[in-house]
């Protein structure tokens, strides 16, 4: 079986497995099921005339909106073509150097480092340690490292490194003149106080990446950003292609950033649905990662070696989930599920009940 590289590609799996169910529910992409916001389609239509002209090259309106959303200044923000461009711009600063990546995590950090000839060392979080930040190992290697890439909340575990741990990491990084890149692509599912963006004022070696893709369910628009000290933003901007963000994306960004009501509904949904699903899954004897966001890792406690068999059973039953063969440190041992609507989550539970009966 050739599983797709990323989530959100159920059709590529359908061609190989031919599910018996007519409807396939996609749990493989960790996008907000409440999105996009109801107003977005009409707003995009209203902005279609903007495709006739080049975008305003400084993207000032979009950058100002991002800055206000994050609580920083205009000169401390760079607008990017999704989170992916932000990652590659950060890696470019350390071309030919060395990076430490805390695994398992998003594969684009390593992809970007390899692209720019940055040597990569992996340090793995462990399930038995609740996927916590391996600070002892990080400190042991940070002196020989130019940059640390860390996802917070982490993809695929959904875990959030404590701010006390992040402070320890930054102190160690500053002592060795190491830059820390923290990807906050999923932070908008949580309280703003969980973000480290305000730390750029006291830690100039900190680069914070953000994305509107996940929380607003707009992966096709490609809207991301970076928050950092102005001198760092200038270095990042120097490597950015002209007009890398399209006109539609830049025009829509201010309205997205201002939609606090949508973010409020999202947080309320998460606070209700995530604990419910954890209880139900653990009652079925599945191990569930201590996620705080809209996705989680799952492993069958009764058949931990049968993950691929479970993945196949799920898809043939109409559930597309994300394999973990491409996550170093997991190597296919778990399955990542997005948290979906109550109705979709109940369908997943129904299928997992059928799996459990099949195993007995």
UniProtKB/TrEMBL annotation:
GO terms for molecular function: pyridoxal phosphate binding; threonine-phosphate decarboxylase activity. It holds the Pfam family Aminotran_1_2. SUPFAM superfamilies: PLP-dependent transferases. InterPro entries: Aminotransferase_I/II_large, CobD, PyrdxlP-dep_Trfase, PyrdxlP-dep_Trfase_major, PyrdxlP-dep_Trfase_small. This is threonine-phosphate decarboxylase. Pathway: Cofactor biosynthesis; adenosylcobalamin biosynthesis. Its cofactor is pyridoxal 5'-phosphate. Its EC number is 4.1.1.81. Keywords: Cobalamin biosynthesis, Lyase, Pyridoxal phosphate. Decarboxylates L-threonine-O-3-phosphate to yield (R)-1-amino-2-propanol O-2-phosphate, the precursor for the linkage between the nucleotide loop and the corrin ring in cobalamin. Residues 24-351 form the Aminotransferase class I/classII large domain. It catalyses: O-phospho-L-threonine + H(+) = (R)-1-aminopropan-2-yl phosphate + CO2. It is an enzyme of class 4 (lyase). GO terms for biological process: cobalamin biosynthetic process.
């Amino acid at each position: 079986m050739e599983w797709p590289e990323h989530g959100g590609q159920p059709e590529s799996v359908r061609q190989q497995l031919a599910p018996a169910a007519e409807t396939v529910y996609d749990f493989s992409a960790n996008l907000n099921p409440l999105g996009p916001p109801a107003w977005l389609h009409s707003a995009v239509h209203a902005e279609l005339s903007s495709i006739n002209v080049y975008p305003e090259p400084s993207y000032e309106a979009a950058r100002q909106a991002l800055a206000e959303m994050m609580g920083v200044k205009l000169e401390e923000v760079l607008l990017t073509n999704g989170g992916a461009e932000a990652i590659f711009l950060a890696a470019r600063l350390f071309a030919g150097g060395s990076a430490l990546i805390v695994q398992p995590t998003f594969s684009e950090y390593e992809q970007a480092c390899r692209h720019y000839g940055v040597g990569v060392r992996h340090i793995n979080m462990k399930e038995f340690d609740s996927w916590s930040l391996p600070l002892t190992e990080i400190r042991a290697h940070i002196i020989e490292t130019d940059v640390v890439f860390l996802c917070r909340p982490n993809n695929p575990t959904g875990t959030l490194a404590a701010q006390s741990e992040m402070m320890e990491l930054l102190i160690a990084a500053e002592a060795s003149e190491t830059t820390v890149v923290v990807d906050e692509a999923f932070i908008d599912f949580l309280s703003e106080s969980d973000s480290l963006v305000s730390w750029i004022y006291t830690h100039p070696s900190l680069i914070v990446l953000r994305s509107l893709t996940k929380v607003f369910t707009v992966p096709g628009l490609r809207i991301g950003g970076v928050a950092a000290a102005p001198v760092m933003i200038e270095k990042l901007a120097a490597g950015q292609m002209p007009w890398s963000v399209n006109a539609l994306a830049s025009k829509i960004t201010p309205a997205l950033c201002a939609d606090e009501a949508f973010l409020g509904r999202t947080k309320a949904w998460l606070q209700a649905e995530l604990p419910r699903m954890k209880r139900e899954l653990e009652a079925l004897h599945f191990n569930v990662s201590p996620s705080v966001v809209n996705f989680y890792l799952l492993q069958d406690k009764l058949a931990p070696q049968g993950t691929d068999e479970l993945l196949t059973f799920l898809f043939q039953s109409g559930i597309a989930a994300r394999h973990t063969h491409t996550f170093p440190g997991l190597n296919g041992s778990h399955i990542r599920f997005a948290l979906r609507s109550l109705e979709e989550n109940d369908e997943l539970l129904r299928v997992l009940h059928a799996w459990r009966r099949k195993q007995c």
